[in-house]
Amino acid sequence: MRRLFPVLPVLPVLSVLALLSACREKPQPPQEFDGTAAFQYIQTQVGFGPRVPGTDAHERMGDWLDSLLRQRADTVIVQSWNHVTKAKETLPLRNFIARFNPAAEKRLLFLAHWDSRPVADGPRSQDSSRAVVGANDGGSGVALLLGVADVLQRSPPSIGVDLLFVDGEDYGDFTNAPEDVLIGSRYYAAHQLPGPKPLYAVLFDLVADKDLQLYQEGNSLVGAPEVVELVWATAKDLGYSGHFIASPRHTLIDDHLELQKVGIRAIDVVDFDYPAWHTTEDTIDKVSAASLQIVGDVAVALVRRE
Ligand SMILES: [Zn+2]
Q: What are the residues whose beta carbon lies below 5 Å from ligand 1 (ion)?
């Protein structure tokens, strides 16, 4: 993803209010989501090395994801295609769609990207010649969705749930080669599954930072404000308003925009205050099971409340 506008200043008074309201809330006990197990999914991904399209690590990661999803979901659909980049490279890409309760009319869509960025060219990068390991960038969203898949396998949802793992989100240059980023979400939007559209969609990325601060994202507030409201209210009900902070901060170009373009009410749940973003420092020591637990509890609560 890329930040579109400069950081909006957050008024200190709002932060204080958020903290006060967090203190008053009572956390609720049921935790179907297993943050520790989800953390293991980040470790496995990091173990493949950077999952850059066109590399062995990317292919092995895709095969691993495919086999895990087949063990958990009712149906797995693989969208497989070749993408030719602006520089005329051919990349074999795959989107995976794990469907639970595939016949249900009422559905939710959760998505994350599973590829890693080929160049560590973030603003704080010390070495842009290397690829991003992506413990948080890519790794955390995939781990979150796999943790949700475990929950839904153990206790099937009453509604339909689709977990979409998009490829090629982070390959190219967001400014100079926009056709080489958000590739998988654009492909999905152009090749939607038959049947009703989801009620809404939530994109998860950068959701495992040890210092978890999820502000509301600008393009989500423009395209699907009622979904932002629902997700942050759900987090508050669970006692998580200290982490899901109900005020806007960054505005991002990300996969949710490709879904919004085809009429899906899609939002981005993302902690963009992550110093290791697009650096070689986006490693396992920066992320935690506790953060995955928080976001995972919210994701599962969204399914259970419908
Ligand atoms: Zn990225």
A: 117, 137, 170
